Each structure stands twice: as C-alpha cells, then as structure tokens.
C-alpha cells in the first residue's frame, strides 16, 4: 500500500504558473526544448527535476505528451491528452492556454473554499492554544488558592483543578502527543485507501456535503467541456474526467455513466441513474445540450453556474459559523470565569467573617 507524504509533491499553483509560462513562451515562438529548459531553470524542487527530464526526452525526439505521461501524479490525464491533441493538430500553445484557463478556475474554486474555512479554523486553533497556555501556566497558581477553601468546592472549580492537575502531571507529554495525533489524523485523511469512507461521509454532512457536491459537479462539467471542445469523444472524455475527479464517490459514478455511453446511450440517460449526485437541473441542461449538439457549451454554462453556487454557499457557511463559534467560545470563557470567581468570592466572604 502506497502512503502519501504531505508537502512532497507539486502544488496546484506551481503547475498553473509553469503551464502559463510554457504557453506564453510557445506563443512567442520559443522552441519547445528551449522553453522546457527555461522552465527547469526557473522551477524549484521536484518540478525542476521533472522539467529537466522532460526537456531531455523532447530534445531526443520524444513527444511532449509522452514525456509528461511518465508523471501522472503531476500532470493529470486530461492535461496530457490535450497536449497530445495540440501536438497532432499544431495548436499546442492554444491548448496549453485552455489548460491554464481550466487550472486558474480550479484555483479560484479552491481559494473560495479555503477562504471560507480560514476564519473558523483560525478561531479554533487560537482557542486551543490559549486554553493549553492557561491550563499549564495560570491554573496551577489558582489551584493553590482554591485548596485553602473550607467546605465544598463548586463543581466547576473542581473541574478546573482536575484540568490543572492533569497538565501539571502530563502536560509535557499530552501537548506534543495532541499535536502528533492531529498531524497523524491529517495524514491519514490524505491516504487513498480511506477516501471511499471520508468522501462519502463529507457528502452526507449538511452544508459541507452541499459544497462538496457543487464543487464536484463544477469540476466535472468544466473538465468534460474542455475535453469535448478539443474534439475528444464523449466516452473517452468521461474516462479522463473520472480520473480527474477528486471525490472518489463521483469518480466511481462517472465511470459507471461511461458504460452506457459506450453502448450508444446519451450522457443524460447515464446521469439519471445517480440522482443523489447529479440533480435534475444538471441532467436537464445536459439533455438540452445533447439535443442541440452543443454539449460542451452546456457543460461550460453548468460549470459557471455551480462556481457561483459554491461562492454563495461558502459565504452562507461562514456567516453561520462566525456567531456559532463566538457562542461556543463565550460558553467556555464564561464557565472558566465562574469557576475562578466563585471560590474567590467565597474566600473573600470567609475573611470578612
């Protein structure tokens, strides 16, 4: 079983910028092997080595598409296919520009989602760090005061004392262990063998599942539209689009849709078998596109529509999460304040007697 290690691959931004530079150089008339050499010198890390190897193969007479196909973890199948079509038709720079447009829209989609999740994640991280700092450095001093109380200690204060005792005894182990557990959990979520479970789970979560569906449909529509407009057959385009899908549930569904299409049925008919993944609106637009002979344009419209839906939904999610997080933080802060103030008030009352 292959284990994926974070931060060892090529980022989406790096691929976008490299493809953009390559398209610009070819459009300006720079020979392909010289453009690849320039990319190898300008790139860093793994991508620099990849372009250097690709440049050598092209210089030896191999086609660019075949040289890129050796690195499927960097250059997806739709990327390689469009490059191959560009080579055979003499439109390589134009096809690369189409890829740049596709990757740029994908980048915008990712940025919207990350931007929507940035605030709640930041609030949670700051809250956890502040809580740990208070538990390790503030609570131990307060517990010395609480233990001089005569009589019953309030329940909330007992909880605070227990937390302080725990961090005093195990804090040097618990904090690194918590950090390592979070990192291990994140790495686990990135592994392909767990994706069938996690991707299906994400689709079932309210709001988040809706965003995941919208993102998957937008990506599928954009990819399929790009491939069809390049002259690729529908069945082959579906096969390539399934490999480009990042959600395993959608990936498997698209592969199933390709089967009846290969047997002569229309795309809309295949999509109807998966109503939970492809809504009626989507299927109707696809059906209209098939009847009019403009399926690629219909899919481009759908991609644009769902891009806007993702933006609206992520904004709604952010609007919902902001007050919810504030309420949760307020409850914890208020509980801690009561746990500290109540016994201090009792001590003050005892001293007055």
Please describe the topology of this protein.
Blueprint: H1 12-27, H2 32-42, H3 45-59, H4 64-69, H5 77-89, H6 92-146, H7 155-189, H8 195-204, H9 208-229, H10 234-244, H11 248-262, H12 267-271, H13 280-292, H14 295-352
Helix pairs in contact: 1-2, 1-6, 2-3, 5-6, 6-7, 6-9, 6-14, 7-14, 8-9, 9-10, 9-14, 10-11, 13-14
What does this structure look like?
- Belongs to the GSP F family.
- Pfam families: T2SSF.
- Keywords: Cell inner membrane, Cell membrane, Membrane, Transmembrane, Transmembrane helix.
- It comes from Candidatus Terrybacteria bacterium RIFCSPHIGHO2_01_FULL_48_17.
- With 353 residues, the protein is an all-alpha fold.
- The protein has a domain at 12-104: Receptor-associated Protein (Up-down Bundle).
- The chain has 14 helices and no strands.
- Helix 2 (32-42) packs antiparallel against helix 3, helix 8 crosses helix 9 (208-229) and helix 13 runs antiparallel to helix 14.
- The radius of gyration is 28 Å and the shape is elongated.
- The N and C termini lie far apart (71 Å).
Record keyword descriptors for this entry:
353 residues; mainly alpha; Receptor-associated Protein; 14 helices
CATH architecture annotation of the domain at 12-104: Up-down Bundle
CATH topology group of the domain at 12-104: Receptor-associated Protein
CATH superfamily of the domain at 12-104: Type II secretion system (T2SS), domain F
End-to-end Cα distance, whole Å, is: 71 Å
**Total count of helical runs of at least 4 residues:** 14
At the first level of CATH, the class of the domain at 12-104 is: Mainly Alpha
Q: What class, by secondary structure content?
A: mainly alpha
Q: What sequence of helices (H) and strands (E) makes up the elements?
A: HHHHHHHHHHHHHH
Total strand segments = 0
Biggest β-sheet strands, sense, barrel: none
Helix content: over 70%
If you compute it from the alpha carbons, what radius of gyration comes out, rounded to the nearest whole angstrom? 28 Å
Roughly what is the average pLDDT, rounded to an integer?
86
Give the amount of beta strand, in percent.
under 5%
């Amino acid at each position: 079983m292959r284990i994926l290690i974070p931060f060892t691959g090529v980022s989406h931004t790096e691929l976008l910028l490299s493809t953009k530079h390559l398209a610009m150089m070819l459009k300006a008339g720079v020979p392909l092997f010289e453009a690849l050499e320039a990319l190898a010198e300008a790139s860093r890390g793994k991508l620099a080595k990849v372009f250097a190897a690709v440049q050598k193969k092209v210089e030896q007479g191999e086609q660019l598409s075949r040289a890129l196909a050796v690195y499927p973890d960097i250059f997806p199948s739709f990327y390689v296919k469009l490059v191959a079509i560009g080579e055979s038709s003499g439109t390589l720079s134009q096809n690369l520009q189409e890829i740049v447009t596709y990757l740029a829209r994908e980048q915008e989609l990712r940025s919207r989602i990350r931007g929507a999740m940035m605030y709640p994640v930041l609030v949670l991280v700051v809250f956890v760090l502040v809580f740990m700092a208070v538990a390790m450095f503030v609570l131990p001093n307060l517990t010395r005061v609480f233990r001089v109380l005569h009589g019953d200690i309030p329940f909330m204060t007992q909880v605070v004392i227990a937390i302080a005792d725990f961090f005093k005894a195990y804090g040097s182990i618990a904090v690194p262990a918590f950090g390592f557990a979070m990192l291990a959990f994140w790495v686990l979520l990135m592994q392909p063998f767990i994706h069938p479970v996690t991707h299906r789970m994400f689709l079932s979560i309210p709001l988040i599942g809706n965003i995941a569906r919208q993102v998957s449909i937008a990506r599928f529509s954009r990819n399929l539209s790009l491939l069809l407009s390049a002259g690729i057959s529908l069945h082959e385009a579906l096969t390539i689009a399934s490999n480009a899908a990042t959600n395993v549930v959608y990936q498997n569904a698209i592969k199933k849709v390709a089967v009846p299409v290969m047997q002569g049925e229309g795309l809309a008919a295949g999509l109807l078998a998966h109503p939970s993944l492809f809504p009626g609106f989507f299927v109707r637009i696809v059906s209209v596109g098939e009847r009019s002979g403009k399926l690629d344009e219909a899919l481009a419209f759908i991609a644009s529509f769902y891009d806007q839906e993702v933006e609206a939904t992520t904004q709604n999610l952010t609007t919902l999460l902001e007050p919810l997080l504030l309420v949760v933080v307020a409850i914890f802060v208020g509980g801690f304040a009561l746990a500290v103030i109540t016994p201090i008030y009792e001590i003050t009352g005892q001293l007055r007697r």
